[in-house]
Amino acid sequence: QVQLAESGGGSVQAGGSLRLSCRASGYTYNKNCMGWFRQAPGKEREWVASISYASVSYADSVKGRFIIWQDNDKNTLVLQMNSLKPEDTAMYYCAARSDAACSAEFKYWGQGTQVTVSS
After folding, report:
1. How far apart are CA 57 and CA 72, in angstroms?
2. Distance of CA 53 to CAs 56, 89, 101, Å?
3. Which of 30, 32, 42, 112 has the fewest Cβ atoms nearer than 10 Å?
4. DSSP string, 26-68
C-alpha cells in the first residue's frame, strides 16, 4: 500500500523559506513521476512542480523560487521554497504516479501540509 507523508509546512513571513518533504512508503521512486500540488481556500487545486527521470517542471508562478528534487536514499521528495509570497499560502500535497508520465493524473496522494505566508 502506497503512503505519502508530507512534513515541513508552517508559518513564515514574506521573503522567507520553507522546505517540504514527502516520505514515501510502499513506493519506490524508480524514475516514476512525483510532484507537488497546492490548494488555497476557495480555489481549485493547482500543480506546483513535478519530477521524473525525464524532466523537472515548475508552474510559472513558482519558477525561479522553488526547487524540487528526489532524495533517493531516503525515498523522499523535497520541495525547497524560497522568496515566499503571501499568495503561496495553501495546503501543499505530495503526489505520485507508477510511471514517468507527469502530464497524466496522479494516482497517489498525501494528506497535505499547511504553508502560511504573512506579509
Report:
1. 18
2. 8, 29, 10
3. 42
4. S---TT--EEEEEE-TTS--EEEEEE-SS-EEE-TTTTTTEEE
What pLDDT, in 10s, does the model give residues 18-68? Answer: 999 999 998 887 788 999 999 999 999 999 999 998 899 999 999 999 999
* Locus of grid cell 503571501: 86
- Amino acid at residue number 47: W
Please report, as a single letter, which amino acid is at residue 16. G
Distances (CA, A) of 25 to 6, 22, 77, 96, 109: 12, 10, 12, 11, 12
